[in-house]
Design goal:
Layout (H helix, E strand, L loop, with lengths): L2 H4 L4 E11 L38 H13 L3 E2 L2 E2 L2 E4 L9 E4 L6 E2 L2 E6 L9 E14 L3 E3 L8 E3 L6 E7 L6 H17 L12 E10 L9 E6 L2 H20 L7 E6 L4 E7 L9 E2 L6 E2 L2 H10 L4 H12 L3 H7 L3 H14 L2 H18 L11 H12 L5 H13 L5 H8 L7 H14 L1 H8 L3 H14 L6 H12 L1
Parallel strand pairs: 13-14
Antiparallel strand pairs: 1-11, 1-12, 2-6, 3-17, 4-5, 4-16, 6-8, 7-8, 8-11, 9-10, 12-13, 14-15
Helix pairs in contact: 3-4, 6-7, 7-9, 8-9, 8-10, 10-11, 11-12, 13-15, 13-16, 14-15, 15-16
Length: 489
């Protein structure tokens, strides 16, 4: 259904706050390990526990990863930034405050670009740009455990002090589909530049969605923040539910109250957890135990020089060097291994557009069904290139190629030519034999010939079908079309 009809004339406004756990081996202000899965409270040092007399020391690796991200999104990397104390009580926050950044973050501005399906439901995908407000360094809190304690809560402080980069977008998104594509693009970027492993099941990458609705042209509505969404599926479901909940409330004469809400995947509903605090409620002030973070320009330039080719740069190169459309190029750079697979295959067969089509079509369809990445494809880049070469040189038809691909994917063999031979899929190459068969088809289908010459184009398609049937599908369709038209005058 068209999104505007579903939203009953309301405009949806969405901004995301994303927490990316940085890939350092130790925590942001202590030497404790960040390894996931250790027994509770075995990776919490006196600094993480906020014992009296302990002092934080900033992790240089966390800062370098923040710089890397800022450069990757075209942001300003601040040469001078401040750590602040964000004061609030939570059982798994032993200090009673979180060390974060407030007025002067390390990364300021930037943008994420991606493609999204049109809201009308048809037509080409549309390019979107979401501006970033900031990305700031902070420490994670611990974790409250409820499942194993009847009527009680356990506290695991292993996660306390884990380095996070909180990435805050502007409220530029207008649908759950846009929010999901933005989050997927951001997720791939932090993995691409190797600052976060992106493991959503372990909480390494999680999103908070700020959602509000308004009539077009009206001021922003009151937002509600959906916390800790750790899958793209849940992100979309939670936003869609929240949109309809807010519209229903407004149309029933109610008013949305600013709140923090949780999403229940089992019921598919959001529910209020607490009223939403504003910044002044946290009583931010500069942390007296941490001096200002000073990043010399030389350091920034060293990080810039060490950056890998970024997705947007690779996509531009694929458009330039391989004549790919912008959308195809963006799909080929959905991950670093995907880009390498495409380029290897394109160079091997010299058919980049066909390679892109197969990767976006048959290969992606099967990978998605198996919930697998391109690295797990049983058909390698060289094998796919060999298959595409046989299509391009007319050895096999598109239908035959799909049969070969089925066999390759099943692991029957990785020898394209052997599969073609064993299945008898090679297209007819003897032009004299094809010429004879077409004469027989024309002789046996006089009525279709007469109708075609009388101006009925459908009759030509019928003749092509008869020709393909007579050749058992082994004729090259383009060659059949060309020869038939010549014979029909």
């Amino acid at each position: 259904m068209n999104a505007s009809k579903l939203n009953r004339g309301y405009e949806v406004v969405i901004g995301l706050e994303t927490h990316a756990q940085l890939s350092t081996r130790s925590k942001i202000f202590s030497g404790s390990s960040t390894t996931f899965g250790a027994a509770p409270n075995t990776q919490a040092s006196p600094v993480d526990l906020a014992l009296p007399g302990t002092l934080p020391v900033l992790n240089r690796g966390a800062v370098e990863r923040a710089i890397r991200f800022g450069l990757a999104v075209g942001a300003k990397v601040a040469n001078h930034s401040i750590f602040a104390r964000k004061n609030y009580f939570y059982p798994d926050l032993p200090k009673g405050y979180q060390i974060s950044q407030y007025e002067t973050p390390v990364v300021q501005g930037g943008a994420i670009e991606f493609f999204v399906a049109p809201s009308t439901g048809s037509g080409p995908s549309e390019k979107r740009r979401v501006n970033l407000t900031r990305a700031h360094l902070e420490e994670d809190a611990g974790k409250s455990l409820h499942e194993d304690y009847a009527g009680q809560t356990g506290i695991d402080l292993n996660r306390a002090g884990t380095p996070l980069l909180e990435i805050v977008s502007e409220p530029d998104m207008r649908s759950s589909a846009e929010a999901v594509e933005y989050a997927k693009t951001l997720h791939e970027l932090v993995k691409w530049i190797e600052i976060c492993d992106g493991n959503m099941q372990e909480g390494s990458f999680r999103c908070d969605a700020n959602v509000s609705v308004r009539k077009p042209g009206a001021p922003y509505g009151t937002r509600r923040e959906i916390k800790n969404l750790n899958s793209f599926k849940f992100l979309q479901q939670a936003i869609d539910y929240e949109i309809q909940w807010q519209i229903d409330l407004i149309e029933d004469g109610g008013a949305v109250q600013q709140a923090t809400v949780l999403f229940n995947p089992d019921s598919g509903e959001t529910r209020a957890m607490r009223t939403k605090e504003d910044a002044h409620d946290y009583r931010y002030f500069p942390d007296p135990d941490l001096p200002p973070l000073v990043i010399p320009q030389e350091w920034i330039e060293r990080v810039r020089a060490a950056l890998p080719e970024l997705p947007r740069v690779m996509a531009e190169r694929f458009q330039r060097d391989y004549a790919l459309p912008a959308y195809d190029a963006s799909m080929m750079t959905q991950s670093k291994p995907f880009g390498a697979f495409f380029e290897t295959a394109a160079k091997a067969c010299g058919q980049p557009k066909l390679v892109a089509n197969w990767l976006m079509g048959e290969v992606s369809r099967r990978l998605n069904a198996a919930d697998a990445e391109i690295e797990a494809s049983p058909v390698g880049a060289g094998t796919l290139a060999a298959l595409i070469s046989r299509i391009a040189d007319g050895t096999i038809s598109n239908n035959g190629a799909r049969q070969v691909f089925d066999a390759l994917w099943a692991g029957d063999s990785q020898d394209v030519d052997a599969i073609i031979e064993s299945k008898g899929l090679k297209q007819m190459s003897d032009s004299g034999e094809l010429d004879r068969i077409l004469d027989e088809v024309l002789a046996g289908n006089a009525k279709s010939v007469e109708e075609y010459r009388a101006g009925k184009d459908k009759a030509f398609n019928a003749l092509v079908g008869q020709a393909m049937k007579a050749t058992k599908g082994k004729a090259n369709p383009a060659q059949v079309n060309e020869l038939l038209k010549k014979k029909l005058g």
